[in-house]
Amino acid sequence: MIYLQHFYFTIFVLLATLNSAVFAQERKPRLPVPINGVYEGEFHFQYSKPARVQSMRSFGNGWSNDAHLLWDGKIGESCHLRFYVPAKSRYQVLIQLTKAPDYGRFRLLMDDKKISEIDLYSNRVALADLIKLGEFDLSQGLHQLRLELIDSHPKAKPFREKGRFLMGLDSLQLIDQNPKKVESSIRPPRAASRWAWTDLKSFVRNSCVRCHGTDKQEAELDLTSLQSVNDFAADLKLTQKIVSALRQREMPPEDEPQPGAESRQQAILFLSDLIDDQLQESSRLPVVVMRRLNRLEYNNAVVDLLSLRSDLYPLPERVIRAGFPYFQPSLGFLPDQVRIGNRALGKNQIEQKLLQGVVPFAMDLQAEHGFNNRGRELSISPLMLETFLKLARSIVDSPNFADYCQDYVTLFQLEIPRNLSEADRLKLVTMKAKSRLQILLFRAFRRPIDAATLDRYVRFFRDRYAESQSFSHSMKSVVAAILASPKFLFIVETAQRDQKYAPLNDFELASRLSFFLWSSIPDQTLLELAESGKLSDPAVLEAQVHNMLLSPKSKSLSENFARQWLRLDQLITSVPDDQRFAKYYSRIGCEYWKFGLQMMVEPLLLFESVMVEDSSIMDLIDSSYAYRSDELQSWYRDKIPFNDKSIVNRFNTNQQQFLRRKLPSRREGGVITSAAVMTMTSSPLRTSPITRGAWVAGVILNQPPPPPPDAVPEIEADDDVIEAKGLTLRQRLKQHQINPSCASCHAKIDPLGFVLENYDAVGRWRDQYRSGLKINTSGKLFGEHEFKDIVEFKKVLVEHPEIFTRAFSEHLLSYALGRKLDVSDKPAVNKIVRNVIADRGRFSRVVSEVVRSFPFRHKANHRQ
Amino acid sequence: MILKNKTISRRRFLRGAGAAVSLPCLNLMSPRSASGSELPRTIQRAAFFYVPNGVVQSAWHLQSTGADFALSETLQPLTSVKKHISVFSGLDRIKVSGTDGHAQASTCWLSSAAPDELSPAGYPLKRTIDQLIADQIGQSTPFRSLELSCNPYRDNRESVYFDNISWYGHGHVAKSMRDPRKVFERLFQVKEHRQHASVLDLVQEDARSLVNDLGREDQQKLKEYMESVRTVELQIQRVHRKQDSINRLKLQSPIEPWFELDRDEYIQLMGDLMILAFQTDMTRVASLMVAPERWGAPQIVQGLFDKPIVHHSMTHGQGDPKIQADLAKLDRYHIEQFRVLVEKMSQIKEGDSTLLDQSMFLFGSGLSSGKTHVYSDLPIVIAGKAGGMIQTNFHRREEKGTPVANLWVSLLQAMGAETKRLGDSTGNVALTS
Prior knowledge:
The structure holds two protein chains of two kinds. Helix content of chain A is 38%, strand content 14%. Chain A contains 31 helices and 23 strands. The radius of gyration of chain A is 30 Å and the shape is globular. In chain A, helix 11 packs across helix 12 (451-468), helix 23 crosses helix 26 and helix 28 crosses helix 29 (826-838). In chain A, the strands form seven sheets. In chain A, strands 1, 2, 3, 5, 8, 9 and 11 form a seven-stranded antiparallel beta sheet that branches. In chain A, strands 4-10-6-7 form a four-stranded antiparallel beta sheet, with no helix packed on it. The longest helix of chain B is centred in the middle third of the chain and has 34 residues, at 216-249. Chain B has helices at 31-35, 57-60, 101-107, 129-137, 180-188, 194-211, 216-249, 263-279, 311-316, 321-346, 355-358, 404-414, and strands at residues 45-50, 85-92, 146-149, 167-169, 172-173, 285-289, 349-350, 353-354, 359-364, 380-383, 394-403. By secondary structure, chain B is of the alpha/beta class. Chain B is built from twelve helices and eleven strands. At the A-B interface, helix 8, helix 12, helix 13, helix 14 and strand 18 of A face strand 5, helix 6 and helix 7 of B.
């Protein structure tokens, strides 16, 4: 399948010199899809100033999501609201507005057709009655609701000036009068194997047992022990290994007689069928072990729970640090210019204001081929628990906590009438604490709170109150306790004991979703959907995923997923030789800084643009554009970067303007050939093709090589020494491969590294080695797809999108589940890959397919 | 923060109290006054000093055995403390294929589980002997054990298995601390948090209310949490009891960030903290990783090499005599760091004895050679007599193929445990002749 090549970006990059605002209009904004037809005023509409979101918490309960959209204007002016209708139909339309003393009288128009007039005056702030506006035929796409201020109730007080009045929209609801059933995805039939067991048996005898038989057991493998179909079925891991080895032409080795193409294909199909049948029969869903929040998740969870204005502590996990919130998925594009710095490596970066006196816990380390969110590897030792206790306390005790907590008044403050008796006072205080805790605990623990738990926390509050006689002090103690509870710190799913597996309940689904897409706790919408039991409805789930990706909180997919997937942290400790690659360093005062701090940002901005623009994930392999600072551009393009400036202040270590730039050649673009990846996979003096090959195998193909064998010969650290002997690095490595047991692995890894030899140890293009020796970049992928250089290599990947789509989907699924995938996840991954490819690799399709997948929506019985 | 020019020593640390060895008023800190209970005759301590990536075997190898053994090239720096040490050779661990050789080396070193005792992560990993020893001798001190690491790297290149030698059990790491300031504050600046105690009661109830709803593996995770709750409860009570006498020491907290310290300062600082914790009886069990396994990233060893080195790459370049010489130099450097700590411990009086004589301070690596990733003939030096249980100034060469677990069993027994078998052990290694 051939992917459409970035026509969209080409157009606008050509015009990139013009004001980017012009293009903002040409790009389609992405509007959220409503859940069950409800459009929240503060969320689902495209609007412009002076309309803005207002929190309604202090006005009482009733407003959905505790907020509405507020507008003010002079008589004759209108509030224009655009919204997206997902499907053509006839809809009953209802509107929920706010009324208040300074609100006006409005004429409502749908797509410029007048519907009705409404007076929003009331002597106090309250919700207006729910009004039926009638039935409308609406096409799929954007529609406009207009509210025109015509005049006011005689008693209404103007807002700020004469003739100016307000309007508040809580929600609009569309009820489909002709609902259609949700389409189910159709599974294309798969070619079945024509082979019988005896055919496979003779295939194994002819092609495998010479090395994997009774005489010789290469890789400690004797295939003659597999005497029947059942033997293969009993060892699915081995069977899967055989399929992979056959598919990728690793086996039989090149220098052995090869089976015919048809035989190979039939053997693969026979064994694949066997695996799928076996899996369907047994459905052995792996267990997801209850996991502790990692540092980023803990931060986000607390910030969301207490509505804090900023992060708790410095987070190098957020590599990109910007003064301006450039990441706005609802715009549908990433700005052409972003002014940013690098938090992990940078100096004097814009430090957001943080809570004073709060000390973070250490970043958890990544799994060997995965992420730092795996339950089995995350535990709470005494040291960790101590840290959590202190951390929680330091948050509520922080001197600027009251300023930072937007819910401070409603959560921690209480006006107590002076003349109350001691007993009445205690009663009032306890009652208030109880009602606040009921909500807070529900949000903190992400599940319904039973009476015993609520009582426990209320009792804890009462004890603290008895000691301190201070409501706010006691509430702070309760909050500090909540933050140390296992119900907060762990993502808990209840046991499933009857069957082998069961669907997650809606609350568990809400948590999996929010930790996957936001690295945080579920918001109110998710919890409400879970409470009403609607979240697991496929259509609702699909819409939620869509909406969650439109939230700026989805940036955590870049900060938490992409950063780990690409293993970008390795760039922090890369030290190219300071003489050979002197340009990599800049001296400011007596400190040396590395250019990696600008490199690291480039692949992350590419990832974010693919996310926000919902383009194909194949752009991560081969993009026609890149985000680069002028200095980074100079690094790639100029023979001598930075105008040959001396080391002092050679490059900027503060913020940089990153511009979206069109790339002239496929040598550039995508993550693989980025200077960041090329530098971090090199050693100080030269490239390291094996490291690069292993990186490509693990990150891009998700086929990490097995651990290296015991005796690994190291070759010269300096390529000058190698080239002085007239050898290229490739020839030297080949020479060194004496041990034939290494050959089968290296046949797989090496070409993936050698193809990158045109990029030197700091990611700059070179046509030949320094000594003038020629660079040989040719090779084969999976022993099948030939390429002669990096451009052809990228082409192979783009023309066989199933390779990268599978790898990327597996990485994302593993991240979403917080566990390693195993062979039993194969049917689910197959389905994701099929559907993503059918949708041309759209990013949001990968995400929604992961969410729809069986392993994401189910939990396993631990005792199977 | 990168490649900083250094002109002055940054070890402005623990100065207020002088070096650990010359701490004043240590009598205040004697276990008797701290716990108020009857003193045991000897207070044993156990500590482990871990070196990653193995050693240069040819330079490590000792020619002679027994009481009159001669120190090898790498062990030369130990000359001044030779009477305090014993060396063990010929001890092996069985390697389980399929997982990373370096991660397994550090993670499974102190448990030496049998190859078939695989944890879900694929490593034969069980409770490590430092924790088993803490089960014996760490029950009355505020902290049951102390885990330290001089990991100089600021990326998270490797997984948790490369960075920790101490484990409570499968998947339950006794996570090491890298920041000397945090270690100091944890040990000596524990402010009173009575509130923590009530929080612990509350969250324990939460945990209890959860336990029946969980699957088997989740229950295990929750059990780890509940064990930590109990440990911290005890810790708070015990630290509280010692708070006054600690305050009287007027110790000063470190001022420099750890990543700005020179290598030797960093290692010695962590070592001092460990010794101080022993002296003040805050804990009796500790482990100190001098650096994590593999972590193929460069580090600077000031005063030893002009350029940043990658320890792991050097071990694979040993074929080159120059690199091998450099590597042997690095091994000696680590031995020298160990020697300085041993000497400090030997100068600390404890009644008629010394801290060192009461201790078992073991230097070792989970790999014998980083070149071939083999686990046979592991390098092991023990300083101290563990209260008379270990004969010093002795080199014992065990028969080829003797499991290192045999030594672990003997050490556990020396610490008062009744353990007969551990991991893949087949018997004992004699600690005295």
